[in-house]
Task: structure prediction
Amino acid sequence: MHGFLVLRQGQIASEGYWAPYTEDSMHRMYSVSKSFVSLAVGLMIDEGKLRLDDRVARYFDDLIPEDLHSYLADSTVRDLLMMSTAHSYTSYTRTDANFAKTFFLKKPSHPPGTVFSYDTAATVILNAIVERISGVPFLEYMRDRLLNPVGFTKEAWCIRTPEGTSWGGSGVICKLKDMAKLAYVCLNKGSWNGVQLISEDYIRAATSKQIDNSLAGNYGYGYQIWMEQDNGFSFRGMGSQLALCYPERDLLFACISDTQGQANGEAAIRAAFREEIWAHIRDSPLPEDTATYAKLQNCIGNLGILPQLGERSSSFTQKIHDQWYILEDNPMEISRMRFKFYGDEGVWEYSNASGAHTLAFGVGKNVGGPFPQNNYFGNQIGFIPGSHYQCLASAAWVEEHKLNMLVYVTDIYLGRFSASFAFEDNRISVHMIKAAEWFLDEYQGFAGGVRMEETEHTHC
Result:
């Protein structure tokens, strides 16, 4: 968890952040961005610049092939808003040079507008239409119409696709309160402080069931917005970026997180919400209880991202300190590594296909700093600026001979990897698991090796 906010009857009931995150932290929203794009589409429909029944191909004469499949030719704005495209899965990959173009080139599997199929390319196309009509990035188009009136962070921005448009399907970077504010506009049928910013008709449609998606256990889908039980709706993003809205109770719960790699992570958050918040909602105020309120505030004030759990010391700490290990061929392409320990902090040095790297970590605590590799995407997919992501790294002894490490990337891309290093005599075994979209691929797999002999160590 990185942050949460509970809004009841227009007032913040509770809000908190897990250090090092704060209320001012800019955070990747992943697929919550899709709901933002839906609101941009709604604004454009309100202005008469776009219609739900417009066929999307008409806006892409420069991208469509001569033999465009009829399913794609017939696809409408409404179809894409409902995630009822003619594709069975997202058409693009990280290596494609033009995400929008793939939508028209990939062979479709079924008629559009018929069944639910979650397809981020649908949002890419919708976003591209907004930007082609307006001539500006979709967040900029929304500024005067919606974002500025609600106090949306002026520094908010969006990662770009390879072709240069905003990656509205996944790339918005903003604050938790920014997400909550747009969700609150939807909760109030398009209005903010009594001013109608986006038409009530569009918001009613966007936040109501337009298509069934119960095959995957869901409650329906509107226009890039999910339906929830108890007549609610939600914004959802990978890693548990959530805004759960319940109009009948005037209740909004929002959170930012990174549960990638945690089985049922979002389900656990939802279960906690249902048990600890939803079940205790009442129509009348609670009696004043200053002691309990102080306890709550103390708890919130001490929230922090947990480090790797385990023991802070082991007899192996000094045995492996400053000892190089040479690894056999492995999927991570790590050729050698060593650990250095300095009290409750340490350094992991290793060499892989991208060069020699050093990562500082805490022992039983998190240490923040740059992630050593700099060959990952930056502000635009497909382009590598050579900058370092920020991360939190920690390690602890889970067995006397086994050191586990946990590394969280806490930048415009979120992800993590866990590593286990087992030492026996002069040998080492390594197991790494990564949970991240489109990066950290070098930190997945198994490896084995031996400690470098003293004579070799001296020459090294």
